[in-house]
Amino acid sequence: MVLLGEMLLQESGSTPDQARAADLFRRAAAQGIPDAQYNLGVCLRRGLGVKPDDAEAKLLYNAAAKQGHPSAQLALGSLLAQTATTNEEWGQVASWYRLASEAGHPTAMTLLAQLHENGRGVLTDLGAALELYQRALAAGLTDAAAEVQRLEVWLRRSGACA
How far apart are CA 84 and CA 134, in angstroms? Predict the structure, then answer.
């Protein structure tokens, strides 16, 4: 069901196929399949074949994230980041980014690095941020190269060791 749903989303972009894909994801998500929970969450966030519903997407991302789905962990962190205001809320965001980062998700590495740069939900730690950007670059996220260079230059100029 999950693979067919993914094929339907990629194939046409038409509303009937999106609705059918979302229905397949919903049926598989009801069986506790993390890929389906994540994909249905994406449909709900983007309004693909279903009415947008961030609250339901959050529940689905959470279910998949707790089962170790790195993209769901990243998505849940990003959804929480949209409304985070307190250090505790940013700490929850950082926790989900950290889990996805540890699973090798390069985008999560860069987002967690940004939190370390800004001290949101984690201690300000430019060395940790640089290491995360370097890991993201090594994992193939070429956009991280500029961040690595920027932080290396800043740390060199400031006399800090990275």
Answer: 26
Token reading at 162: 């990275």
What single letter denotes the amino acid at residue 84? A
Confidence of residue 6 (pLDDT cuts 50, 70, 90): confident
In this structure, the number of other CB atoms found within 10 A of the CB of residue 14 comes to: 11
Query: Looking at beta carbons, which pairs linking 4-10 to residues 24 or more positions away fall under 8 Å?
Result: 5/36, 5/39, 6/39, 9/39, 9/43, 9/48
Q: Give which of 105, 111, 133, 113 is closest to 38, Cα–Cα.
A: 105
Q: Based on the domain organization, do 62 and 92 belong to the same domain?
A: no
| Overall domain count for the chain | 2
- Look at residue 82 and tell me if it is in a domain: no
Q: Which of 85, 94, 92 is nearest to 115 (CA)?
A: 94
* Same-domain pairing of 59 and 95: no
Provide the residue range defining the domain that includes 61. 1-67
Please state the pTM of the whole predicted model. 0.89
